[in-house]
Amino acid sequence: MRDASKPILKIENLKTWFKTNQGTVKAVDGVSFDVHEGEIFGIVGESGSGKSVTNLSVLRLIPVPPGVYAEGKIVFRGKDLLKVSEEEIRMVRGGSISMIFQDPLTSLNPLLKISLQIEEALQQHHSMNKKEARQKAIELLRAVGIPDAERRMNDYPHQFSGGMRQRVMIAIAIGCNPDLLIADEPTTALDVTIQAQILDLIKSLSDKKTMAVILITHDLGVVAGMCDTVCVMYAGRIVEQAPVDELFANSLHPYTIGLLSSVPRIDEAKTRLYSIPGSPPNLIDLSEGCPFEPRCQQRLPICSRQYPEQSVIDNSVMFSTPFPSTHLVRCWLYTDHENLQKGDNS
Amino acid sequence: MQQLIPEFALTKRRHESMSRIFKNSIAVIGMCIILFYVLVIVVSQFWLPFDPLDMDTINMLQPPSFETGHVLGTDEFGRDILSRIMKGAGISFLISISATALGGFIGTFMGIWSGFLGGAWDNWIMRLADILFSFPSLLLAIFVMAVLGEHTYNVIIAISIGYIPQFARIARGSILSIKNNEFIRASFASGASRSHILIHHLLPNIIMPIIVQSSLSLSVAILLESALSFLGLGVQPPYPSWGNMLSSSRKVMILAPWTAIYPGLAIMLLVLGFNLLGDGLRDIMDPRLRNIQ
Questions:
Q1: Measured between alpha carbons, how far is residue A52 from residues A61, A102, B184 in Å?
Q2: Does residue A125 sit at the B interface (CB-CB below 8 Å)?
Q3: Which of A118, A149, A150, A201 could form a disulfide with A137 if both were Cys (CB 3.0 to 4.6 A apart)?
Q4: Number of H helices, E strands in chain A
Q5: Which residues of A fall within a CB distance of 8 Å from B6?
Q6: How many CA atoms lie within 13 A of B283 on its CB side?
Q7: Nearest 5 degrees, angle CA B140-CA B141-CA B146?
Q8: pLDDT confidence of A177, banded at 50, 70, 90?
Q9: At residue B293, does pLDDT exceed 50?
Q10: Which distant-in-sequence residues (6+ apart) come within 8 Å of B120 by Cβ?
Q11: Residue A184 to residue A97: CA distance in whole angstroms
């Protein structure tokens, strides 16, 4: 039985930086969140906001150098993944945490039969012989909805369509019954109907196996349909985090509000789509203040000087969720007045 | 565009790529020539028209004739030229294949590690390759021969050293173009070790350009071996090699042109064979040239 209150992954103040000749790129700069058993945790944000880097850091897949894990902890099953040995992290990769990538067209080796590629991951983590691995691989292909699995086992990746290849990727990812699946924009390269099928598949697998999922996306529709909890990232930090219904009903951070209003709606006949003015900041020389300040419609004098602390919002609207989740936001608008005053004077 | 890179090496099924080789007439001609030489070498192990080392002062510098049995004539010591060419073919082949295999293996290995590891390793390995590359390969081979001394095995080493940077560059280039592919990242993400990825995912993807380069290198090795033997640094007389046959015929070339023409033709035909095969293979591997007839 799943225990929804126990976090299986706890990220605390993670800072992943890249040292380049131009300066240090603070791609992830103090991110903290918990993922609970069976939870689907969404991360949204525009390109370059640090979503992918956060998740690559979980499996320590950022090449070091130029990457540096400057600070923070990634606690998974009581172990800090940033501190364990190379051998241990390899056993975690694809074992208890697995990952699927954005582009299924290039995620499979074009030269190898898919049977080999599925069995490879199985044999890596379980002491299975060839025959058992093959049997298991066929079961997996069936589980992800590939018809005629025995025959398709011997096909090469180019004989599969994009959606089918993503199913194969998912089969590889769930092969070792992971506790956590990280899906990095799993449907971006697919068309809409296939998107829905793949997302349904991930959701049903998550329910069946009480597997937690971190879903990285920039599609807010996907978030609304899939996730239990959402966090919004901007310039390497989480600006707002809330249960999904709460976030959509009561979004607070100006950036989140901007994101939500730039989604086209079918019930409103607008001629022009809203877009947030300006472009994301350069992560090399971030100012002291809030990185969203130059683009913000509601900026305060203090915004350019100091980065706001995280404030906890008492849920004005209550939504039931099995996961302990509070509404967190980092914006001076929601920091209490006293703090604001103090910050203003400094 | 990213798709192009794996497609480049993509040989859908083995029998399909074999059938493509047979459809490519250039490659087929090249292969026929090489097979012909292989046949000659096999035959020469069991039967030769004459003993290639046996001097026959009565029949010195005989022109080619069927009556005497010296089909391609005799040289200045009366030795049968056909027998010497046949005997020399084996040595040339052995040297060329061993040198290409040795140089190709070391070079590919260096290139793979260089491309895979990147950073300082990459820099050191490739600068080393650049140094080797800056010498003309014949000059390098002569230098190595002078250091190591004259011996057939040393010819192999001398030629292979010149090959190392060529293979290193090709392997590194191919690795660089595929190592950032998603499937490599996916493999890392599923817990595969570096050596596993190298052997199972990277090597099969770069093997085709390496094969093409090998077949072109084989022809250059034949030429280099002949050149070294011609200069007296390679295979030592009285043992026959095409190079030293040409070398010894210099003095009698005007009197007896067959002493130069036939060994020369033997070299030319084999080099042509390897080059045709290499060109054909390259056309087969390059999808942009496929289906253009």
A1: 11, 10, 17
A2: yes
A3: A118
A4: 11, 12
A5: 106, 109-111
A6: 19
A7: 100
A8: confident
A9: no
A10: none
A11: 13
Tell me how many residue pairs between chain A and chain B have CB atoms under 8 A apart.
Answer: 85
Q: What is the mean pLDDT of chain A?
A: 81
A169 touches chain B (CB under 8 A): yes
Q: How confident is the model at residue B274, as a pLDDT?
A: 92
Model confidence, pTM = 0.72
Cα dihedral value B125, B128, B130, B134, nearest 10: -160
8 Å CB contact between A275 and A290 = no
pLDDT at B10: 47
pLDDT bin (cut points 50, 70, 90) of residue A281 is confident
Q: How far apart are CA B222 and CA A121, in angstroms?
A: 45
The shortest C-alpha distance from A230 to chain B (Å) reads 24
Q: What is the pLDDT of residue A153?
A: 85
Rounded Cα–Cα distance for residues B79 and B68 (Å): 12
The pLDDT-based confidence of B39 (bands split at 50, 70, 90) is: very high
**Is residue A100 over pLDDT 50?**
yes
Residue B77 to residues A67, A103, B53, B156, Cα–Cα distance (Å): 72, 71, 9, 28
Write down the pLDDT at residue A83. 82
Q: Is the ipTM of this complex over 0.85?
A: no
Question: Do the Cβ atoms of B192 and A173 come within 8 Å?
Answer: no
The two structure tokens encoding residue B158: 């001398």
Do the Cβ atoms of B186 and A93 come within 8 Å?
no
Q: What secondary structure, in 3-state letters, does chain B show? A: CCCHHHHHHCCCCHHHHHHHHHHCHHHHHHHHHHHHHHHHHHHHHHCCCCCCCCCCHHHCCCCCCCCCCCCCCECCCCCEHHHHHHHHHHHHHHHHHHHHHHHHHHHHHHHHHHHHHCHHHHHHHHHHHHHHHCCCHHHHHHHHHHHHCCCHHHHHHHHHHHHHHHHHHHHHHHHHHHHCCHHHHHHHHCCCCHHHHHHHHHHHHHHHHHHHHHHHHHHHHHHHHHHHHHCCCCCCCCCCCHHHHHHHHHHHCCCCCHHHHHHHHHHHHHHHHHHHHHHHHHHHHCCCCCCCC
Mutate to test the interface with B, among A109, A112, A116, A160 (most CBs of B within 10 A): A109
pLDDT digits (tens, 9 = 90+) for B248-269: 888 888 888 888 999 999 999 9
Q: Which of residues 11-40 of B touch A (CB under 8 A)?
A: 11-13
Answer whether A216 touches B (CB < 8 Å).
no
Please give the pLDDT value at position B288.
58
Residue A239 burial (C-beta neighbours within 10 Å; 0-12, 13-18, 19+):
buried
Average the pLDDT over each of A89-93, B17-21, B139-143 and give the range with the smallest value.
B17-21
Question: Does residue A227 come out as left (phi exceeding 0), alpha (psi in the -120 to 50 range) or beta?
Answer: beta
A101: which chain B residues are within 8 Å (Cβ-Cβ)?
182, 185-186, 189
Burial of B1 (0-12, 13-18, 19+ CB in 10 A): exposed
